[in-house]
Amino acid sequence: MKVTIDGQSIEVEPGTTILQAARMIGGESVPPAMCYYSKLKGSGGKCRCCLVEVTKGSDADTRPMPKLMASCVTGVMDGMEVKSITSERVLDARKSVTEFLLINHPLDCPVCDQAGECDLQNLSFKHGSANTRYIEDRRTFEPENIGDNIQLHMNRCILCYRCVMTADQLTDNRVHGVLNRGDHAQISTYISKAIDNEFSGNMIDVCPVGALTDKTFRFKSRVWFNKPYNAHRDCDKCCGKTTLWMFGDEIQRVTARKDEYHEVEEFICNECRFEHKDPADWVIEGPRKFEKNSVINQNNYTRDMKPVKIETEKNILLGRDEDRKKISMSEVPLKGQEKKEFKEGNV
Amino acid sequence: MGRKILLEHANVPGIKSYEVYRKMGGYASVEKALKSMTPDEVVEQVKTSGLRGRGGAGFPTGLKWSFIDKKSGNPRHLVCNADESEPGTFKDRYLMEYIPHLLIEGMITSSYALGCNLSYIYIRGEYMWVFRILEQAIKEAYANGWLGKNIMGTGWDLDLYVHCGAGAYICGEETALIESLEGKRGNPRIKPPFPAVKGLWQEPTVVNNVESIAAVPWIVNNGGEEYAKIGIGRSTGTKLISASGHCKNPGVYEIELGLSVDEFMNSDEYLGGMMDDRPLKALVPGGSSVPILPANLIFKTTEGNDRLMTYESLSEGGFESGSMLGSGGFIVYNDTSCIVRNTWNFSRFYHHESCGQCSPCREGTGWLEKVLHRIETGEGREEDIELLWDIQRKIEGNTICPLGDAAAWPVAAAIRHFREEFEYHVRFPEKIKNRDHYVNEPFEKVRHLVTKQTV
């Protein structure tokens, strides 16, 4: 089947959705997706970020579709023509969805562990506005403890249902779900149970925002101060292929490997994720590549890597002059030459 | 005197019981259909009748029936949507409470037409006493051989159950209803696949409103052509209207479609004019989710045609100057009512009832409600009116199910037709601080404060 997205044509199998076709083409036309997750069955259609305009239904029925369609759940038809970023309507809709998602979001990125790898940040960076028109109180929830490994921040949740589907499809007994209705719907356990299933940690990886974060990594570091490495170990429960987020020679966090759409390549078990923080447990394959414009790339590998040994708690930025310069800590003033470089660059 | 089809025998004493209902000619349609017609002939009759879905959208029932997937051989289901929760609509309750057997009879005949062996009535939780009435009626129908195995010796089986919802408006949306019936959280599904292909338990399902199903026995008895003679154009048959608000005689009325709004409002047979003879200010003709009409557009359209009680005439002029027949919740407002407060009240309802699945509706309905509440309590800002317009525009059409549209339309219409009232609320917070502020000082008296003066 032939489908044209923003003027780019591609041949795809029947049953492909518009979003999948767009991802095959790649580039700017790929609609953002906050709730769709290709590894989870039945996901998508909820966040409405991926709305596209179908200007021609198919070769058989050339009429355009009157409404914007959620590209993640709309199958392609032969000869379909789709406008993604070339359509004003689509951009306007994405802008409004972004605004809707943000009105009740706490915007606490400075203290959020997800900041830097957050889909909502990326979405608002691209489609959001710098001003808010929302002057009311944001809705809040009482904090809830859902176990030792996973931290739930319900205020940040955008109700994508990904974690519910993960628990449904990966674990045997789902103990959490969505309670209540409308903007008071919340992710919660029934009733106040700990989520302790062996694969429950994957909820952290699928969460597009900072609603579910790793408790063992809580407030340890900003993600862009970590260096990600591909690593693996023999695990009898899962594939054992992970990304280690290192600071010096300390493993601060373990996640599954994520692709360019921030979807995990393979789900991993809780043992790999939470219990192996010793580099000796892992076979480190090498540094992991990131998109060019990712904030994680801030800490890139393009310059010579000198081995540094760091005690995190003691001297947080000792031996990392560049970072110190970037942050410009007032306690550690820059030298005259450094200050000049900081302002003008050292090119 | 208009013709009565649904409520013909509503006033017969004891019509609730099977014996009286049968004596008045009840279950004749089942006999006729099962003995002398094939299922396809019944569908054909309903198609000819031009009966349109009475739940609000007005989709032709016969056409909907013909979409059901009979080829796959999967078991088919008929589900009756009795989750009537639209503010202003209470026709189905009346029908089910007073003539429960009419719905049961309709369910049997329609199930026969669709070839279903297992059908459901999904009733809202607040209608618990009606639920009991229906249970009783079903028991009587079983006892008299209209339900169960081998009905009337034809070899066709039908089981009918009443399922009680838990009181969520969203479960009136057909796919959410199906989810709820399956025992899950009542979230609307993403279409396609449509219920006619994959509905209840992934099997072909038709979901119809109570009133649509109750009209089927008459159509089968008297023929679709006879039904199509009632009404005007594509609006055939009769419709139950539940009238409320500031009219003299509120209640449920059966009207022939094509009656003029003027006659319905002012004749003694129906609403009998305005309560206390105060002037008419606005009208919601089809339940809370349809656009509100200002006084000048109620009896005449912008084209100068008489406004009739039909699907077409009420929506004449589109959303600019028209509305919709919807589910027939006819709400009348006189000059003491505050449109801003009314709109806020509707928004509050949609905020409360949004399922929270898709973001524009979940966040947008709450936002609308908060802004409207601010305006109504005298804390509005001038830019809030534009903001409201912008929010509703961004919800409409971008959601999974029509609840988002239903939340957006009343706000849009209120701003479109009553913008001055919003401005009045924003500019004179002192004057609107009491909720009965229009009783002593109707808007007409203060309109000059907000109209633009040209010198």
Automatic annotation (TrEMBL), chain A:
Taxonomically, the superkingdom here is Bacteria
Please give the SUPFAM superfamilies that the UniProt record associates with this protein: 2Fe-2S ferredoxin-like, 4Fe-4S ferredoxins
Stretches of Basic and acidic residues bias are at 336-347
Under SMART domains, the record lists:
NADH-G_4Fe-4S_3
Domain (2Fe-2S ferredoxin-type): residue spans on this chain:
1-88
Keyword annotations from UniProtKB, A to Z: 4Fe-4S, Iron, Iron-sulfur, Metal-binding
Locate the region Disordered: 328-347
One Pfam family from the record: Fer2_4
Q: Which residues form a coiled coil?
A: none
Matching InterPro entries:
2Fe-2S_ferredoxin-like_sf, 2Fe-2S_ferredoxin-type, NADH_UbQ_OxRdtase_ferredoxin, NADH_UbQ_OxRdtase_Gsu_4Fe4S-bd, Prok_molybdopt-oxidoreductase
Instruction: List the CDD domains.
Output: fer2
The UniProt record lists the 4Fe-4S His(Cys)3-ligated-type domain at: 89-128
> This chain belongs to which protein, by name?
NADH dehydrogenase subunit G
Tell me the organism. Flavobacterium suaedae
UniProtKB/TrEMBL annotation, chain B:
What are the NADH-ubiquinone oxidoreductase 51kDa subunit iron-sulphur binding domain coordinates in residue numbering?
A: 340-385
**Keyword 4Fe-4S applies:** yes
Q: Which domain of life is it from?
A: Bacteria
What EC identifiers does the entry list? 7.1.1.-
Return the InterPro entries for the record.
NADH-UbQ_OxRdtase_51kDa_CS, NADH-UbQ_OxRdtase_suF, Nuo51_FMN-bd, Nuo51_FMN-bd_sf, Nuop51_4Fe4S-bd, Nuop51_4Fe4S-bd_sf
Under Gene3D superfamilies, the record lists: 3.10.20.600, 6.10.250.1450, NADH-ubiquinone oxidoreductase 51kDa subunit, NADH-ubiquinone oxidoreductase 51kDa subunit, iron-sulphur binding domain
What sort of enzyme, by top EC class, is this?
translocase
Listed under catalytic activity are: a quinone + NADH + 5 H(+)(in) = a quinol + NAD(+) + 4 H(+)(out)
Note whether Metal-binding occurs among the keywords: yes
List required co-factors. Answer: [4Fe-4S] cluster; FMN
Q: Tell me the keywords, alphabetical order.
A: 4Fe-4S, Flavoprotein, FMN, Iron, Iron-sulfur, Metal-binding, NAD, Quinone, Translocase
NCBIfam families, from UniProt?
nuoF_fam (TIGR01959), PRK13596.1 (NF010120)
Role description: NDH-1 shuttles electrons from NADH, via FMN and iron-sulfur (Fe-S) centers, to quinones in the respiratory chain.
Q: What family does the database annotate?
A: Belongs to the complex I 51 kDa subunit family.
Please identify the protein, giving its name as recorded. NADH-quinone oxidoreductase subunit F
Origin organism of this chain? Flavobacterium suaedae
Its lineage reads:
Bacteria, Pseudomonadati, Bacteroidota, Flavobacteriia, Flavobacteriales
